[in-house]
Amino acid sequence: MLQALPPIGRRRALQGSAAALVVFGLLLWWLLPMGEDSPSGRLTFSTGVQKGVYERYGKLLETAISQDMPDVDVELRNSEGSQENVARVATGKSDFTIAAADAVETYRLSGAPGWYRLRGCTRLYDDYIQLVVPRSSKIDTVEDLRHKRVAVGQEHSGVRLVADRILEAAGLDPVGDVEPVAAGIDTMPALLKKGSIDAFFWSGGLPTTSVRDLSKDMDVKLVKLGYLVDALHKQGGGSRYYRAATMPADAYPAAQRGRAVPTLAVANLLVTTDRADSELTEQLTRTVIDSRDHIGDQVHAAQLVDLRTALFTDPLPLHEGARRYYRSVKP
Predict the structure, then answer these.
(1) What Å distances lie between residue 217 and 110, 212, 223, 314, CA to CA?
(2) What is the value of pTM for the model shown?
(3) What is the pLDDT at residue 36?
(4) Is the pLDDT of residue 266 over 90?
(5) What is the dihedral of CA 73, 286, 310, 330, to 10 degrees?
(6) CA distance 95 to 89
(7) Distances, alpha carbon 58 to alpha carbons 50, 55, 98, in Å
(8) Fewest Cβ atoms nearer than 10 Å: which of 156, 231, 241, 288?
(9) φ/ψ (deg, to 5) at 125
(10) Of 29-38, 216-225, 278-287, 303-312, which range is least confident?
(11) Which 8-state DSSP code applies to residue 2?
């Protein structure tokens, strides 16, 4: 028959049990986000034109946010593009956006309202500048656009900004030497198919669905742009963010016919202001990085988001919340 433990044994058993409970509690505290509330509230995100990469990326990011931050209500707002996006965020009309680095720098240098509040969260993917013309066209260089009808993007788009600069780099007056047509990627392909324009500029991730679909329906080609990089850098300001790049041959197979195209590229940034909540910004930055592969399955450009370069948001300083995220994942 079992004998009762002596007093000292019972005391030691109780102490051992208490110690085990403490260890178990600490383990739970370590593994579970106890006491940490998920961010909540409303978030307004400015995207881009319909059928553009910004809009598609924004919709997929909204889904990822709803999974990671279920108490955050996301409102997506279409825009004309980078220039409007930067202005919206800087003036408090949107909380977050995507914008190309050249548009961000142009806004800052202009001293426009709220420029000093702008902050970066993540360097995303690169936009590739694309000049699309019918394959039968005699337009082989930007200089050949003289006296042509050219779609250059909407007034407040990043496309308009870069198109004007490229035309100037080629020695053309964006208004006097070409017939500019204000149109976005949602209407440019149809205008080219109808013969209403002779060419259009586009700045977007690769591949852009509208350009890819056009290349399947119409025989088009992409004009080389890389040779203008030095002339662009001489312009100074936001133009220093353009770099020579190569559009891979498989970006638009029907248009490129196995040939890579020398062009220009510019980085996209996830942009907010110093008004954004640090906890929300930290979690949003985490969501952007963690959802790269999932979003990249549908927006190929998103696959290029790289944790090693994501914190380089020049010309913007990092938001403190984003900085906290990068410190937390630093090896």
Answers:
(1) 41, 9, 18, 39
(2) 0.86
(3) 52
(4) yes
(5) 160
(6) 6
(7) 11, 5, 9
(8) 231
(9) -110, 175
(10) 29-38
(11) P
